[in-house]
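Q: Joint fold for the lines below.
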Amino acid sequence: MDGSLNMVGYGLAAIGPGVGIGLIFAAYISGVARQPEARGVLQSIAILGFALAEALAIIGIGLAFVL
Amino acid sequence: MNTLLLAASDTFVPPGPRDFEFPGIGGSFFTKPMLIIVLGTLLVAVFFYFAARSAQRVPGKLQFAGESAYGFVRNSIALDAIGHEGLRYVPYLATLFFFIATLNIFGIIPYFQFPATSKIAIPLFLAVISCVIFNAIGIRRMGFGGYFKAMMFPPGIPKPVYVILAPIEFVSTILIRPLTLCLRLTLNMFAGHLVLLLFVLGGEYLLRDYGGAVGIASGAVAIFGSIVLTFFEAFVQLLQAYVFTLLSALYIGGALLEEH
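A: Joint structure:
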């Protein structure tokens, strides 16, 4: 079996953003459940937070291929 | 190209970054991503030209489609992220959104099936344009010194903290913002395309070369998974176009206010 250790590292590095994105959407869902009329405002904030947290995972996969 | 590789080596060659390099069409310098960029640009331009040409008070079908598409960027990106002043930047944001969305969607259109934005040059160029625009807006609004002062020295913070905060804010605004804009789009498209390739090529290998009951059963699952993932990819491609445009709008909005 061969492969790159980089990919194992990337798998480990993706745990953090994974947890982060989960927390963001958990907060978004409970926010909408409490105040359904705030959905429009919360949606763009949630997607913004998702994009910022996801950037870490994305940088990780970039480095996994480059390094 | 990959089927040739498979036939030659007879073991499964997983897809990698080399699958993103194309030879020129007919031996020329003109490659498939370039073709997709030209087609995508023409598609967006022609669509909006004909949608906006001879605009009626009561819109026809094409004009309605064009207006709803433009209205989406205007209402849910420009107005939400920047506010009323954002109306001035809707043309840029709409261009950005539809250009990126079209190039992304080429990733699931049969025959093309390559998201041109997974080549880093395009997102990098777009991110640099966005960066120049929001910095220029801030400088025009507050003057050169005023803009950098507002950016690096936000009020209401203990003086010693500025030693750390000012360089972080400077690097973050000038360098990290365009860099993450660019990398986010590129690598989302790169990773998405790679996963699709893995499912399709792996499924093909399992069905055709591995064979047997195990190969056929797992290959069928992989091919079915690739269909599901194609739809997921379509969602991600539109979402990433939205995210790129939303973040550009937020940066422009931040430069207009700049008093966090």
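Q: Anything notable?
A: Chain B has a mean pLDDT of 88. Chain B touches chain A through 19 residues (CB under 8 Å).
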